[in-house]
Amino acid sequence: MWSFVKLVFLFVLATVFHWAFASVFSYWGLSVNILLAFAAAFCAVLKPAFGYPAAFFCGLFLDFFGTKVFGNNAFTFTVCACIVYNLSERFDFDAFFPQIVTVFGLTFLAGVLNSLLFLWFTAAALWPGFWSLLGGSLVSAAFAPAVFWLVRRVLGKGSICRQL
Amino acid sequence: MSLRKKTPHKQTTPGARRRFLLPLTFLLLSFLLMILPLEGFVSSVKAVLAYVFIPQVRLAHGTAKYAENVHQTVRELLDAHRENRELKQEIEMTKLLASQAEAILDENGRLTEILRLKPARRWTGVWAKVAYREPTQWNTVIIDKGSRDGIRERSAVISMQEGKEGLAGVVVEVTENTSKVLLVRDEDFSAAVYLERGQEEGLLVGNGPRPVRIKYIPLLTHVEKGDKVFTASTSSIFPAGILVGEVSGVREDESFQTALTVNVDPLVSSAAVKEVFVILDNEAKK
User: For position B122, what pLDDT does the model report?
Assistant: First the structure.
């Protein structure tokens, strides 16, 4: 129960960080997605029964602000969660490098997938631009180790965490 | 006799099955949310989520804003006393002006009655603060007042900028304590407007990051940069006479034109909207 409360606390914290980073970096036209870094960290640490809903809700949080499509971010985040769970059998997410590479790849992939879904459902483009997405992915990746550290630090080895 | 070794069939364990079913469930759920129309079920889901996310959104917005402006907040606090004194004086002046305005209104009412003119209607509303703005969705904001304060869908929203009131947008979703406002620049926004110079009417449409446009202005209309644009009385949502912005240019790139398309620089900038006035009792539209 306590672990679940901590997870909810981290979710709230993730939205605060996401807001702050997205606001600051939007001045430079960068499409930063810190919430996705948190979702990836949740999946790296939590059991699938908690990791998938956490990622889904992170996506749903972003969907809440859309007016044209609802569920595209939830879908993208769930796909990313699948990727993280598959990668966790090959990668050691305790090391910095896999964290950075994974978050970079996922942020870029999420941007592309989101744009495609948006295009499919509304026939309108949501493409933030290649350099914006690339720059945003780099920034998200740069903060990934800190995000992973925070998630591990707060959740520790609670009952909802994976036993590695 | 076959040389091939018989391999036993792999048994699917409950754990493996769950590992497959769990992501599939969430993928299907999100896909379902995407394909369903935004009204009805999805709207109900959003309403439920509003109870969970809105306090969180406020916290996120408030914390980030606070952290961003700490040094500015300290400076503002130091200036607060002086400003308070100045504002008190301004309030006294405003009270004086309000009593003068009341007298002028009375006089205007009497004259209107004598001349048998249709009286100009007044509208009332509520002030609300922008509670959240998602950085990737600059054309939509969430305000901190909802149905409890009398706000309804399609309520007109205005905002003050540079000391003038201007059209900010329209309410598109309402929950008990919050409302979502579609700002003028959004592609889904439209309003009937007229140009101050010749009173020609057209349809104002948002255009995302590109300039806001007025379509269907008669072809031979004389339009100049800087001409003011106001909401028209033919609008089904907005009261007439709200300043929208100024003409920033006439589009001349369209061949075989049957009407003019005019670019408009809105008075209320999407990025600068902080406080808004939601018109509740738009008598002019009753």
Answer: 65
The range of the structural domain enclosing residue A18 comes to: 2-155
CA distance B66 to B107: 48
Instruction: Tell me phi and psi for residue B142, to 5 degrees.
Output: -110, 130
Give the domain extent around B130. 123-286
Q: Per the CB < 8 Å rule, is A48 touching B53? A: no
pLDDT, tens digit, 9 for 90 and up, residues B163-178: 778 899 999 989 888 8
Partner-chain contact A67 B60, CB within 8 Å: no
Q: Is the Cβ of B42 closer than 8 Å to some Cβ of chain A? A: yes
Rounded to the nearest angstrom, the gap between the alpha carbon of residue A131 and the centroid of all alpha carbons in its chain is 19
B146 in a structural domain? yes
Distance from the A20 Cα atom to the nearest Cα atom in chain B, whole angstroms: 5
Contact between chains at B64 and A63 (C-beta distance less than 8 A) = no
Q: Give the per-residue pLDDT at B77.
A: 81
Kindly indicate whether the ipTM for this predicted assembly is greater than 0.90, answering yes or no: no
Q: Is residue B139 domain-shared with residue B25, that is, in the same domain?
A: no
Residue B162 and residue B265: Cα distance in Å, rounded? 14
- Pair B51, B154 in one domain: no
Q: For residue B165, give every residue at least 6 positions away whose Cβ sits within 8 Å of its Cβ, in sequence order, or none.
A: B158, B159, B242, B243, B277
Report residue A34 as tokens: 């810190």
